[in-house]
Amino acid sequence: MHHIFRHDVHLFSRLKDVLGLPLPAVVEAVVLPNDLTETRPVERRVDTLLRLDSAKGGSLLLAIEAQSKKDRAKPASWAYYVSYLWTKYGLPTALLVVCQDRATAEWASLPVESGPAYMPTLSIRPIVVGPHNMPVITDPAKAAEDLALATLSAITHAGDPDIGAILKALSTALRDVPENVADPIIEFTAQGLSKRPAQDLWRTLVAVDLSFYKSYLSEEIRDEGRAEGMAQGSAAAILLVLEQRGLDVSDAVRARVTACSDPETLRDWLTRAITVASAEDIFTAE
Length: 286
Description:
This protein has 4 domains: 1-35, no CATH class; 45-133, no CATH class; 140-215, no CATH class; 227-283. It has helices at 3-7, 16-19, 74-89, 102-109, 140-145, 147-156, 163-174, 179-192, 197-209, 216-244, 251-259, 263-273; strands at residues 48-53, 59-67, 93-99, 112-114, 122-124, 127-129. Helix 7 (163-174) runs parallel beside helix 9 and helix 9 crosses helix 10 (216-244). It is elongated, with a radius of gyration of 30 Å. It is built from 12 helices and 6 strands. With 286 residues, the protein is of the alpha/beta class. The longest helix is centred in the last third of the chain and has 29 residues, at 216-244. The strands form 2 sheets. A 4-stranded mixed sheet has the order 1-2-3-6. Helix 3 (74-89) links the parallel strand 2 (59-67) and strand 3.
């Protein structure tokens, strides 16, 4: 059934009238190797893969991808994931893409076809969640009803003007839940906010509203706070010693001392501040 196409490589291009397809005139046709076996291992990982079993006995696979920006190469990867999983597990496979901005969400929502427009053999049509369709949860009581949904809401609305109220609702809702429930929510929210300004706001809320928890993030914030407080205290001590000795402390010296956060350097400057002839001399040994 297929060898005739190999024998006459231009046969397919002559079928346009039979098939009713607007096929372009083919100038050259080449027979390629038909072995599709992977000759070397290629690492491909979907972000998260779930199997969902229904009460009626049916199952499906859900491949979940986090997408932070537009990427022209992604649809081909998504097509590979879906076709591979369908082949390996023999189950219907769906693709869910999670985005944090509307532009990326709209791009990810567009169907992409493998093949010419008139022969869309394989279509990729992800289900997309993002700021365009996720609820904005600013009520702590609503957040408490479904902490995972509230977390996803916060992550997908990371760039939203209401992110402060969203995060405040989540941190308030976490006050009344056991620590083993709150800990993963705290960490997932911090990771999901990535390096956006909202992450700093979340860290502050954790430090203030959830100070009694001992999660990794909570301890990290407290350690940072202790280190920052010690540095501020050392800087203040250096400036106080210099001023008490009657030395003129310029704005440049004051700015350099207060900007330093290295405890060893601050200790050296404090030691020198006791004996130097001028405030600038605390830096001379460097």
